[in-house]
Amino acid sequence: MGKGPGxxxxxxxxxxxxxxxxxxxxxxxxxxxxxxAGVAITSTGIKKGELFLADISSQLKNKNITTDVKVDTNSxxxxxxxxxxxxxxxxxxxSFKVPDQRSGKVELQYQHEYAGISTSLGLTANxxxxxxxxxxxxxxxxxxxxxxxxxxxxxxxxxxxxxxxNSDLIASxxxxxxxxTLSASYYHTVSPLTSTAVGAELxxxxxxxxxxxxxxxxxxxDPLTTVKARLNNYGKVSALIQNEWRPKSLFTISGEVxxxxxxxxxxxxxxxxxxx
Length: 276
What we know:
This protein is mainly β.
């Protein structure tokens, strides 16, 4: 376990990654190349039904400064500049999108042995201010995540979370949607040698009285091949297999079946990521 409680987004992240990461019903293709100057250029294409989306991005690292530039099929240009550790434990992120003149944002992240803070401010006349903070240790952490709209004077987001971590178990409890949603998640490492793990997430909505229970597992068949599976209380069963057929290059195939509507076709997703 690392030092410090991390950031608010780290609360429940292990369980979320186990249950949702790499599952998809689209077809995705990603290629990354490097220029002689060390610039990484990544091209991505995604087929969603009859719709095809694409983007191209570049990344340049110079000492502790990373510059990312991304252009998509709608001619949007997103630029992100990250300065890592201008002071110990501090990270500064500046981002903006063209032609959206209201998209500029500055974010500061600070991680300490007993605290993790992230705050961002929109670069507009009436910005949205985001703040998240976590206090505790690498065992127990308590945090909150807030967003305040200065134009209306209202809080647009008000969340809180608690996590407990030991060598092979991570449990978390979060309250989201201004107190309307309660989520509990659990992640347990069964065998580190085979990356075998199990996890579960239970979400309850107070306004609709709806419960969603999702459980899942993962296992490494060999050092290069991982399988995952999950199911929820609505009868949806998903599985995937991911193979690192060459260093940093991944091929993933995933599928989902609705057991309560078995006559419907299964959803199948493919993802291919190529890196030199």
